[in-house]
Design brief:
Elements (H helix, E strand, L loop, with lengths): L21 E5 L2 E5 L7 E4 L2 E4 L2 E9 L21 E3 L3 E5 L20 H4 L9 H15 L3 E5 L10 H14 L5 E4 L7 H9 L3 E3 L7 H7 L8 H15 L4 E7 L5 H14 L1 E7 L7 H4 L7 H18 L10 H4 L11
Parallel strand pairs: 7-8, 8-9, 9-10, 10-11, 11-12
Antiparallel strand pairs: 1-2, 1-5, 3-4, 4-5, 6-7
Helix pairs in contact: 2-3, 3-4, 7-9
């Protein structure tokens, strides 16, 4: 992808998610675009230009938030506890380690522990720290929602207990803040009830791919979790959180047949699960980047996203109707721009 030529104060260079880009606002919507000094697209006067042609799109950078300048009493910068995504989303990885991070188990697109090794974050965020940072982010920077994810832990809850405590603490400090939680399918599905009872309003249970051969190739550890476990977790989560408050990331460009991927999205939509299709990005520090695997062509991203967006519109399930989370933000993909 050619990206855009503009300095961006807010970037996300590593982590558990798919973005390795600068955070921008295009026509009022969140976007995470590759920042490329050689791109033919540039930003001037808050407009996106292709050479000397005005594309007609307004574009502005997300400015460095004020809460980044603060630190806890222990001297930990707030930026190492939670970060701004898009213009108004606070995001944190509560546990920055994963039991599946050894190379033979690791998801090939993930860099969850690279930011920890770089000193950009701390291994485990306490509920009190998250509450402190969330309060400041809402008060100083107008944050309107929060996302809490976690590396997979050894317990059967897969990390859900840490998220339960964290959600409660944040909502004690900032009542009413919409929070999405993200976990693997827990061994005991009542953990999903506990997350909802704690106050989370939406949940992401991310499969990243639906084809078992692709799952095992790209996610040797996570892909060994049977798809039946995901289906059971999705169905239970829809019962608890409601239709269109449950989502799953699906990465375009891992080699899945596009028609089969779109058909899988249709089945997810029928379940009440929002399939958040986004382009795979070969982030620095990933096994995919090391092995020279490129991201998908824009034509493939456009094709899959437009078809899934049409299915979502037909079902009346829009990302903007989610109460919190990645699909509600929409920055890492183009589904919202495509009408989904």
């Amino acid at each position: 992808m050619r990206g855009v030529r503009v300095p961006t104060p807010v970037r996300r260079p590593a982590g558990a998610g798919p973005s390795d880009d600068g955070h921008l606002v295009i026509d009022g919507g969140n976007a995470a675009l590759p920042i490329n000094p050689q791109s033919p697209y540039e930003v001037r006067d808050n407009k996106l230009w292709l050479g000397e042609s005005d594309t007609g799109l307004s574009l502005s950078v997300v400015h460095r938030p004020k809460f980044y300048d603060l630190q806890t009493a222990e001297g930990i910068p707030y930026e190492k506890i939670a970060r701004l995504h898009g213009k108004d989303v606070l995001a944190t990885t509560v546990v920055q380690t994963c039991i599946r991070y050894a190379e033979e188990q690791r998801c090939r697109f993930c860099t969850i522990e690279e930011s920890l090794r770089a000193g950009a974050t701390v291994a485990a965020k306490t509920p009190a720290q998250l509450a402190e940072v969330a309060e400041a982010a809402v008060r100083l920077d107008g944050v309107t929602q929060m996302v809490m994810t976690t590396g997979t832990t050894t317990g059967p809850d897969r990390g859900a207990r840490n998220l339960v405590r964290s959600v409660r603490a944040v909502l004690d400090a900032v009542p009413g803040l919409p929070i999405q939680v993200q976990i693997e399918p827990p061994g005991d599905l009542t953990a999903i009830n506990d997350l909802h009872d704690a106050g989370a309003v939406s949940i992401g249970i991310h499969a990243e791919a639906l084809d078992d051969e692709i799952r095992l190739k790209w996610m040797p550890g996570k892909g060994s979790v049977p798809m039946a476990d995901y289906e059971a977790a999705w169905d239970h989560a829809v019962e608890v959180f409601g239709r269109n408050q449950v989502s799953t990331y699906l990465l375009i460009g891992l080699g899945e047949n596009p028609d089969e991927l779109v058909e899988g999205c249709r089945r997810l939509i029928a379940r009440g699960v929002y399939p958040f299709v986004v382009p795979f990005r070969p982030m620095t520090g990933t096994l995919a980047r090391r092995d020279g695997i490129a991201g998908p062509p824009p034509s493939l991203v456009r094709d899959v996203s437009s078809r899934v967006a049409a299915l979502l519109r037909e079902a009346g399930m829009l990302g903007g109707d989610q109460k919190a989370g990645c699909a509600a933000c929409g920055a890492c993909g183009v589904l919202q721009a495509a009408g989904g």
